[in-house]
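Internal tracking record. Fields below are filled automatically when a chain is submitted to the structure queue. Please do not edit lines marked as system-generated. If the sequence contains nonstandard residues, flag them in the REMARKS field before resubmitting.
Queue: standard
Priority: normal
Entity type: single polypeptide chain
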Amino acid sequence: MIYSKQDDRRKRLVDYGPEKLADTLLELAAWDKRAESKMQRMTAAPSENVGRFKRKLAALKKRNGFIDWRGSTGFARELEFMLDDLEAGLEDPRTGVELMAKFFEADEAVFNSCDDSNGTVGDAFRFNAANLFSKYASRCQDKDWICDLLEKLHRDDDYGVRDALIEKAGEYLPPEPLRRLAERFWELSTKETDKYAKRSWLILVKLLARQLKDAPLFEKAETGDDPNPGPAVRFNIAEAYLEAGDAKTALKWMESIPKKETYMSSERDHLLKTIHIRLGNKDAVADAAWRLFRQHRSKETLSELLEVIGVDRKEKVIAEATDSIFKEKEFSASDTEFLIEAQRIDEAEAYVLKRMDQMDGDFYTSLLPLAKNFEKLDRLLAASMIYRALLESILGRALSKYYHHGVKYLKKLDALGLKVPNWAHFHSHQTYLDGLRQAHARKVSFWSRYNELE
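SYSTEM-GENERATED OUTPUT FOLLOWS
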């Protein structure tokens, strides 16, 4: 039997002894809110955990002050601790559903008291709270009562987080009450004169229709009163029909999207490929796979293409793709990555060195991995040129908070500069460094950081 490091640590903790372990846990709880919350739940009676949830819920509705974006993540953790208290202390499903409904009804007080720009507070509702609601609701026998409660919650939903309960409705409602709820929401939508309110009910109908795999109902809710729906709506309807097992109708909707609509071409071809696979249209599957590969050349799209046209054509496809990449005028980091993945290392290096004037160091998320790849492949000239672009981007923006990254890139260039065998038509590292010092002589903060590490 193979033991992991985790197994070994667990055994050591068991051997540590209950008293010492208890003291250590109490010490940790004094320093960490999550540990303290966990300790409280472990040592409290179930009723105490439920009582703590209720007290915190009441306090939420009476909050004073405002939490800015920097404190919102901690606030979200507090909400999650509340939900953990309830889950640890309450078994009765109906009471659990009632309390979770009250938690969702506190959304106005919660969102009015914090800046949730990073979405963590919303996630506490959409994921943690919705999952716990679903857990209790799945064990609750009175499904009609749950439907009534869901309608009540959505009659007054100004923040959108309650939709998560409908997204999970299929987890706790059988098909019949699920359909009745969809019909109820549809009826409510027909009575609305306000467009926003009508749309809100129709969104819920669509969520339920997808779970019911009722594509005609989804179509009716998605199109509304629009006799000529746009491309995105047609795409969504096609998806719904495909999920419902009706690939033919899905294809009709996809074919109704004008060919000139290219902004969603990748998503469109992915869906078309799946539809044609279901219908057994091999040629159409190949066409879609080719389009996907040409839109974004990668190891994944190449593999998907070869699954359709045959792996024996791999080298030919890569050769044709390489020719196409070199014919395109604009630099592409993803195409460079593809050449490396396809073991066309010489071509990848030549491609980068030929397009250095197009290299924009602001796009560091795509360029830095390339620099590291070339360095691993011992293509140090290409790596150096990319590191130069990254460095010049930082110095060009003159933002001192990023200077530590620039210093790191320049130190990397110092190291690589000793190993580059041939600088071709590019300046050597020393010449480059001298020019850099002259061009950015006034950036004292940068150079002082650089010199400190010499």
